[in-house]
Design a protein that fits this description.
about 575 residues, seven-stranded antiparallel beta sheet, alpha+beta, TIM Barrel, eight-stranded parallel beta sheet, Jelly Rolls, Immunoglobulin-like, 3 domains, globular
């Protein structure tokens, strides 16, 4: 799935941003206070960014500074009144919905600065247990949620908190909503900038970069005897390959495994791990390919059959593709959580070594994923999955991993691996030099951000906004595909120990291996900047993405395309 959006990293500053951030419905024309003017995280934490967070003041319905947003027909039935049984202060806000709660939000509009991390919180209690969702998201055509948490509110006061990083400068909002008809009281909302100012990031805890970190999508490699791409990836996510449920079992009980068998044979021959995405039921099992199966036992039989046949050959199973999109899944998060429970039972019985990946949601799917985990799915997954497409500046895209991590951690999945099961840079670089750099930096930065895998979309994928890895005919790599391979050789089997960013935008990632090997990957995200190679590095060789190496010079020009400077103490050369 490709989303054509304004490229991450394109900033809306000054008059243009101020002109966009207007409060609608009743107070049109009021310009919101710019978050970016808050002088640092410490000051923001002390001051807070919300107006009237305690819901105080003289009002009959909604507290000053807040507004109700509702939509759709028939109109939701709702009531908002001040309440004196507050968590703190004199008043709380009573929030009642008796019909269509999914279409009523209590909102405060704000501005968010790209790359800043925000922590939102609100205290809530309910007349009877009901799900309450807190989310922080963009507005006005850029409604991506970047912090979200759903909890089951009880009759006592409890705090809901969510943390996330704004993907770009945007107009946005702080929102509260109910998951079912009910009555809640809310009070003491908070929103603070908690961005950690870090120029030096230790990375040793991430461990050795494995071969299967480098994942790939291929439509038909190996299915007709073609030469296998020689660019070094170690995992293959099977999607758009003609091996979905509807392809494997077009008629109930009649299976067609020839294509799948061929794929698994090729993957085994080349030592590539397979990730198989479950889903897309056949017409006999569901209303359409995006619908839940009518009989869950048909789903159970499908999963059991695949897991049994390919025991030891499929490394991991992904629980559906982009279910936050209606064209991919028109059921509820709870329904897919139940299918995940069933799949987990069958996979663990048939192939205990196989791992289960949560559904590959898009960057707009954090709210969906939050509800999926809240419905019980978190206890059944081993790996957190998500899809992250980015622009031509990968440095601006790391919020996608951070926000996915934050939602997973809120549901008890801290420490579980996170895999980007679909992603790639989008756009047309100015030249091959820039394209090589975008590809290489993407691979390095997603590992540095905490992703345990990145499944590139894809080897044999071409188009106006695609950086081609393969030449026409999809047999041989382009110069950019060769840069992908070079980056794999730099990173695979190494450990990232440190990532530093200088004031002028120069990045240095330090790598080591057993036996005393040390190297430094260097680039500048902003342009071409002179860089003096530190004497302490004892640099002996410099590798470039265009191929080959030269004696390391005392100084270089750091640019968009990374170079690798190996230390003289290295026991072995880059493999």
């Amino acid at each position: 799935m490709v989303w054509r959006r304004r490229q991450p990293g394109t900033r809306l500053n000054g008059p243009r941003l101020r002109g966009l951030c207007l409060v609608a419905a009743g107070v049109a024309g009021a310009v919101l206070a710019p978050v970016a003017t808050v002088p640092g995280a410490a000051a923001a934490a002390a001051k807070g960014l919300l107006r009237n967070p305690g819901f105080e003041g003289t009002h009959k319905k909604v507290a000053p500074g807040w507004r109700v947003q509702s939509w759709g027909a028939p109109a939701p039935k709702k009531a908002f009144t001040p309440a004196e049984k507050a968590h703190g202060g004199r008043l709380a806000q009573r929030f009642q919905v008796t019909a269509h709660p999914e279409r009523v939000h209590l909102v405060q509009r704000l501005r968010f600065a790209g790359g800043r991390t925000y922590r939102a919180g609100i205290w809530v209690r309910a007349a009877a247990p009901v799900d309450v969702t807190l989310q922080v998201r963009g507005e006005q055509g850029d409604s991506q949620t970047f912090a979200v948490r759903t909890v089951r509110a009880g009759t006592g006061w409890q705090l809901i908190e969510a943390t996330g990083t704004a993907p770009r400068d945007l107009c946005g909002s702080f929102r509260v909503s109910l998951g079912a008809p009910g009555t809640v009281w809310i009070d003491d909302a908070s929103l603070t900038d908690v961005t950690a100012v870090r120029r030096v990031t230790p990375l040793s805890h991430l461990g050795t970069i494995p071969a299967d970190y480098f994942g790939m999508h291929m439509k038909c490699r190996g299915c007709s005897g073609d030469t296998w791409p020689s660019i070094g990836f170690g995992a293959w996510r099977m999607w758009d390959n003609g091996v979905r449920w509807r392809d494997l079992e077009p008629v109930k009980g009649t299976w067609s495994f020839a294509t799948m068998d061929s794929f698994l044979s090729s993957a085994g021959k080349y030592g590539v791990a397979v990730i198989y995405t479950l889903g897309v039921p056949p017409a006999w099992a569901a209303a359409d390919g995006a619908s839940p199966p009518r009989n869950p036992e048909d789903w159970r039989a499908y999963v059991r059959t695949v897991a049994t046949r390919y025991k030891g050959r499929i490394r991991a199973y992904e629980m559906w593709n982009e279910p936050d999109q209606r064209k991919s899944w028109n059921g509820t998060p709870a329904q897919l959580a139940e299918l995940t429970r069933i799949a987990a039972e069958e996979i663990r019985r048939a192939d205990p070594a196989a791992r289960i990946i949560s559904p590959g949601i898009t960057v707009n799917g954090l709210s969906w994923l939050d509800r999926y985990f809240a419905a019980g799915a978190a206890k059944h997954v081993d790996i957190v999955g998500g899809h992250v497409y980015l622009g031509l500046r990968p440095e601006s895209a790391m919020s996608g991993v951070a926000n996915l991590r934050a939602v997973a951690d809120q549901h008890g999945l801290a420490g579980r691996p996170l895999r980007v099961t679909e992603g790639a840079p989008l756009g047309k670089p100015a030249d091959t030099y820039q394209a090589r750099g975008v590809v290489s930096r993407t691979l390095a930065l997603f590992w540095a951000s905490g992703a345990a895998g990145f499944d590139w979309q894809g080897w044999d994928r071409h188009g106006a906004d695609v950086i081609d890895l393969a030449k026409a005919g999809d047999r041989l790599p382009t110069a950019v595909g060769s840069a992908y391979a070079a980056t794999v050789s730099w990173l695979k089997g190494a450990r990232m120990t440190l990532h530093t960013v200088s004031e002028d935008g120069t990045h240095v990632i330090t790598l080591d291996r057993d036996g005393g090997y040390v190297a430094h990957m260097v680039w500048n995200e902003r342009g071409s900047v002179p860089f003096r190679v530190p004497v302490g590095w004892r640099a002996s060789r410099m590798h470039v993405l265009s191929g080959g190496s030269v004696k390391a010079p005392p100084g270089i020009v750091a640019g968009a395309s990374p170079v690798l400077l190996e230390s003289a103490a290295a026991a072995t050369a880059v493999r």
